Amino acid sequence: MSTALGLLGLVVFIVGVVALAASITWTVVKISPKPKSAQPKPAAPKTD
Asked: How confident is the model at residue 39, as a pLDDT?
């Protein structure tokens, strides 16, 4: 029984670490400023 609880605890720990990393990444992406010098790419010329 303790082996099953240990495995369950390990799975919960891994899921928690992945969720924490994802939330930190999402927060940093939302907070970080967008580059102001970025210009849109020109549209590709149409060939008829």
From this structure: 65
The confidence score (pLDDT) of residue 40 equals: 65
Low-confidence ranges of the chain (pLDDT < 70): 35, 37-40, 48
- Distance separating alpha carbons of residues 27 and 29, to the nearest angstrom: 5
CA angle 22, 26, 29 (to 5 degrees): 140
Residue 27: strand, helix, or coil = helix
**Which amino acid is residue 9, in one-letter code?**
G
The whole-angstrom separation of Cα 19 and Cα 25 is 10
Alpha carbons 1 and 14: distance in angstroms, whole number = 20
Amino acid (1-letter code) at residue 12: V
